[in-house]
Design brief:
The chain has seven helices and eleven strands. It is α/β, with parallel strands linked by helices. It has one domain: DHBP synthase (Alpha-Beta Complex). It has an eleven-stranded mixed beta sheet with strand order 10-9-5-6-4-7-3-2-8-1-11, sandwiched between helices. InterPro entries: DHBP_synth_RibB-like_a/b_dom, Sua5-like_dom, TC-AMP_synthase_SUA5.
Length: about 300
């Protein structure tokens, strides 16, 4: 039996957030709303939790999950080099529907899968997601669906697919409603993924849009210039791996980046936006959350 916490009800929001923090701290999975699609979240620094996330979705380690961050300053903590073009993009589009692939800090003690030393980062534009991130720190988050299935845009859709593989479901209403669905499929509100690993510290090289999403190429070019982007349709060097999954950000060098979901899918250029005070209400004081019977999943 799966419990969904309706975050439009204050008592359920308080209880749900408290339980979500506990679940993340215990290496369990939590489904959260984001501005693009619903995501299934795990502690990014727990290899066992990340593997649990991949297993829940039916994914392999060749499809590592993106990492959601609470604010722009976290970029430098997780990425080894952040080109000026990326700083310009995140200043414009974070929080929001832009994921950037960068070289990961080599000192990080984590195991997201077969990343080839890269990490996909995003700051979501959703109060509940940002509030949780502000307390847990960076989270490994993939779209809340089974591999090969459409991304969930409601908590109920996520629960129908993932069931009791997830400990806590936070229902923040329909996701993706703030964007025009201009992704790679009808109704697609996935984030746009930009691979910046081909840009050197001196700024030489180009950015590659490896998945079209809610931030159009035209908007990106308007910020950094068309000359900063690889030509449309240009093959990505050293292609390998499967990037056709529902919401995995492809690792650097992957050509087939026609992913179907969101890099969950999380401004000002210095701080994360104000997400409100972190709730600390007792779980016992919460209203009873919605009950769902876990459907059979294969």
């Amino acid at each position: 039996m799966t419990l969904i916490h309706d975050c439009s009800v204050e008592s359920e929001l308080l209880a749900g957030m408290r339980l979500a923090r506990r679940a993340i701290g215990s290496g369990e999975l939590v489904v959260i709303p984001t501005d693009t699609v619903y995501g299934v979240a795990a502690d990014a620094f727990s290899a066992a939790a990340v593997q649990r996330l991949l297993d829940a979705k039916g994914r392999e380690r060749t499809s590592p999950p993106p990492v959601l961050v609470p604010g722009i300053p976290t970029l430098d903590a997780l990425a080894a080099d952040v080109p000026d073009a990326v700083r310009t993009l995140v200043a414009e589009f974070w929080p929001g529907g832009l994921t950037v692939i960068l070289r990961a800090q080599p000192s990080l003690h984590w195991d997201l899968g077969e990343t080839r030393g890269t990490v996909a980062l995003r700051m979501p534009d959703h109060r509940i997601a940002l509030e949780l991130l502000s307390e847990t720190g960076p989270l490994a988050v993939s779209s809340a669906n089974l591999s090969g299935m459409p991304s969930a845009t409601t908590a109920g859709e996520a629960a129908d697919m993932l069931g009791d593989r997830v400990s806590v479901y936070l229902d923040g209403g329909a996701a993706g409603t703030g964007y025009e669905a201009i992704g790679e499929r009808p109704g697609d509100t996935s984030s746009t993924i930009v691979d910046a690993t081909g840009v050197g510290a001196d700024g030489a090289g180009v950015l590659r849009i490896v998945r079209a999403g809610v931030i159009s190429r035209e908007r990106i070019a308007a910020v950094v210039g068309e000359e900063a982007l690889a030509p449309e349709g240009e093959p990505t060097p050293a292609a390998s791996g499967d990037a056709s999954a529902a919401d995995e950000a492809p690792v650097a060098g992957e050509a087939d980046a026609t992913t179907a979901g969101d890099a969950t899918d999380p401004g000002d250029a210095v701080d994360a936006p104000d997400t409100g005070d972190a709730p600390e209400a007792s779980v016992d004081a919460a209203a009873a959350p919605t009950e769902r019977t876990d459907p059979a999943t294969s």
